[in-house]
Structure formats: C-alpha cells, structure tokens
C-alpha cells in the first residue's frame, strides 16, 4: 500500500493564490492527472465499439446539413464595449473592462477534421487580443496553427493555460509567454481590475501516443466589477458546477458546451448533452446561457442540428431562462443588466 501512495502527488502553481480552502492541488497518479480524485482513462475499446456499431441516427444525420449561421464581421475587434463573439466551436472573442480574451482557438481545419463553417473574418485579421484562455490540450481546442496566427498578429498576447501545458506551448512557439494554473487558482498576469480563475472540468487529455492525462484540463471564470463570466471548456456533468458557484457566486454569463454527446457510452464522461448543460447552468445560477461546441466540427453521432433544437425545446418548456444562441460573428453585448 505504501508503494502505491508514493505514486500520488498533489500539484499546483505555488506562486498563485488558491481560492478553495484546504485544497492541496491537483491529484496526479504516476504523473497522470486525475479527474478530481479518480484516474479517468477513456476506454479505447469503447472507441472500437463505436466504430463497429451502426449509428441509429445515421440516415437522419446524413440528411441534416445544418451549420450555425455565419455573420461576416470584424467590427467587433475595434469596438470598446463589453461583449462576446462566437468564432465557432469553443472559440470566443471576449472583451471585458477593456481586456480582450480569445478562448480555445481552433480557427482552421484541424488534423482529420474539417471545419463545416467559416470564421467571421480571416484568423489573420484578429487583433487587439491580450490573453489566450486555453482550457485543455485537445486539438479542437488548442490548435497549433491558430495559436501561431494569433501570436504573430498580437505580439502582446499571453496564454493562460492548465498545469503542464507549457511543453505544448513551447513547441508551438518558444517565445509565447504563458502562465500555468491548477484548479481553483487565480492567474496573476491579468490587470488588477479583471480576475481570471482556472476551475475544474470533468475531462481528459491526450495529444500524442504517450501523453494520456499528462496535461491538466479545466474551465475559466472571469470576474469584473460588474459581471462574472463562466467558460466551461469541455466537460461531462459532474459535481464541480456546484463547487464553482459556492466559491465564486452566480454566473452572469455561462458559455456552455452542448454537442458531441452521442453515443453516450463513449461521450458521457467528457461531454454534456443539452439537458445536462442546462442542469449545470442552473447549478451555477446562471444568467445568460450561450451555447458552444456544436455545428463547427463533426465529432459524434448526433445530427448537427439536434443540440440547438433540443436546447430551444428546453427553453420553451420553461426550464432554461436566458438562452441566447448567437450566429458565428454576431456580437452579444454584455451590459450591466444582462
């Protein structure tokens, strides 16, 4: 038993403040991050099972050519109002109190996955970005070419990343400044009038053959004097939503993933379906609900229009207040009375 415990460590960035009292840091077992306390290794026999089984919605999916509406627009880059702009998948442009953020940049086709819809403007035109928020290392959230493009056009940009993401970032560009945080930690690179916290998510990491769970994953909370924004990253439904609300209060805006949930035997531990996303939003005592992680890449078995259709049905039934489904490139203004 003693032998086993030697493999367990709790790590965090010792330079940063931790806001969860008594939290020792993220648990690693033999150098691999746990999902909270449990080691979660996606069962790759499930991937095989998925590839060998027939999608019961195969015909429906084939006939469903839905893509999110796209508004070609770059005006938001030069507007000084607080806003969020969806760029497709989990990529958002956010401006809060004069500080600009770009979440999970995947602005091009990625290896083995083509974008099904474009970006509001060519990625090379994205300017005035202060921080990259990187929730985890999967290639549809941390895309090498996208990060290189943003850094070339925004030499002032800094990356806020999970623990042990530094090696990935150095391989993308050795000069890109970054800071790593563990769960419940507050980054200190951000100007004082804006707070950014790295918070839990229920997910996993793999980018190569031998790096399973070697890099942490998580979500972000951004707080200003007037509002609190939650960006969920990729996550399954788990107890962390209640914990986040307990520590940081109700979320004025929740940017929530709603796609890539079928088949559930493969996806349930790492992605949420629309019902789970709404349940999480209600636990966060959310204001505005902005969906993401649907329609841009084909990652799963559900037809592309299903996530938004289900979400709109849930809203119509009264279980979801505050739904806002923007087009890609459509600014959502974040005023004090959202």
TrEMBL record:
This is MBL fold metallo-hydrolase. It holds the Pfam family Lactamase_B_2. The lineage of its organism: Bacteria, Pseudomonadati, Bacteroidota, Cytophagia, Cytophagales. SUPFAM superfamilies: Metallo-hydrolase/oxidoreductase. Residues 101-294 form the Metallo-beta-lactamase domain. InterPro entries: Metallo-B-lactamas, RibonucZ/Hydroxyglut_hydro.
């Amino acid at each position: 038993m003693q032998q086993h415990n030697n493999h367990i460590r709790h790590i965090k960035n010792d330079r940063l403040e931790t806001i969860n009292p008594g939290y020792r840091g993220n648990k690693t077992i033999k150098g691999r991050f746990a999902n909270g306390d449990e080691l979660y290794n996606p069962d790759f026999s499930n991937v095989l099972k998925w590839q060998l089984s027939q999608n019961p919605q195969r015909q429906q999916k084939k006939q469903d050519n839905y893509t999110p509406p796209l508004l070609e627009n770059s005006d938001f880059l030069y507007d000084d109002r607080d806003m969020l702009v969806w760029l497709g998948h989990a990529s958002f442009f956010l401006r809060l109190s004069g500080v600009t953020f770009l979440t999970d940049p995947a602005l091009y086709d990625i290896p083995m996955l083509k974008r099904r819809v474009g970006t509001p403007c060519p990625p090379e035109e994205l300017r005035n970005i202060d921080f990259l928020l990187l929730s985890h290392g999967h290639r549809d959230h941390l895309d090498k070419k996208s990060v290189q493009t943003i850094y070339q056009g925004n030499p002032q940009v800094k990356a806020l990343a999970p623990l042990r993401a530094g090696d990935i970032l150095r391989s993308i560009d050795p000069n890109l400044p970054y800071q790593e945080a563990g769960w419940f930690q507050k980054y200190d690179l951000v100007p004082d009038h804006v707070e950014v916290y790295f918070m839990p998510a229920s997910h996993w990491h793999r980018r190569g053959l031998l790096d399973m769970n070697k890099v942490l994953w998580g979500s972000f909370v951004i707080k200003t004097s007037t509002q609190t924004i939650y960006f969920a990253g990729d996550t399954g439904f788990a107890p962390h939503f209640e914990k986040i609300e307990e520590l940081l209060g109700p979320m004025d805006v929740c940017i929530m993933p709603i796609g890539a949930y079928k088949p559930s035997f493969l996806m349930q531990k790492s992605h949420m379906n629309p019902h789970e996303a709404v349940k999480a939003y209600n636990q966060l005592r959310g204001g505005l609900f902005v969906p993401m992680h649907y329609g841009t890449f084909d990652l799963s078995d559900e037809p592309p229009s299903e996530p938004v259709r289900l979400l709109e049905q849930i809203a119509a039934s009264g279980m979801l207040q505050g739904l806002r489904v923007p087009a890609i490139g459509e600014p959502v203004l974040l005023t004090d009375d959202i």
